[in-house]
Amino acid sequence: MDETLLAAYRATTYRVRLARGGWAAIRIDAPLPPALLALVGTGCWGVLTAWNPHSEPRSRVDNRDAQHRLLGELKTCCEAIVAAEGVGSSWREASLFTIGPDTATMDTYARRYRQNAYVHGKAAGPAMLRIL
After folding, report:
1. What is the pTM of this model?
2. Rounded Cα–Cα distance for residues 38 and 19 (Å)
3. How many whole angstroms from its chain centre is CA 15?
């Protein structure tokens, strides 16, 4: 993977919408924020998007359609799904915070939606960048 792209992924803030308003921020190599740990418990979690496959810009309509399809598919394997977004220095992408699926399952969806990487972890462990 291109070093510039890898640095952008690592610098991104992955924000998850909280039920009572506001956001919780996930950062690579940092533990899951307490508000999200309360949702996850001891389980697996991930942050995945269908936007901009292989980090190549797509139209808003194409991105929304793909995200909607991904959401529908994730509903079959997740305990919970929460709205999220990846926020970079000059961009943002709608994402989904998932609770339940293991890495193998997340890999399947990430590959299906042609993503280069996604963020995942287990319980209070650090957020990790999984490069495919």
Report:
1. 0.95
2. 12
3. 9
- Look up the domain containing 21 and give its range: 3-131
Helix axes 60-74, 103-112, angle to 10 degrees: 150
Taking the C-alpha atoms of residue 129 and residue 126, their distance in angstroms, rounded to an integer, is 10
Total domain count, the chain: 1
Model confidence over 5-52: pLDDT tens digits? 899 999 999 999 999 999 999 999 999 999 999 999 999 999 999 999
Asked if pLDDT for residue 113 goes beyond 80, the answer is yes
> What are the DSSP E strand ranges found in the chain?
13-17, 23-26, 44-48, 80-87, 92-99, 117-122, 128-131
The region that residue 90 occupies, defined by phi over 0 for left and psi between -120 and 50 for alpha, beta otherwise, is: alpha
Q: How far is CA 27 from CA 12, 56, 66, 75, in A?
A: 7, 23, 25, 25
- Quickly state the pLDDT bin for 122 (edges 50, 70, 90): very high
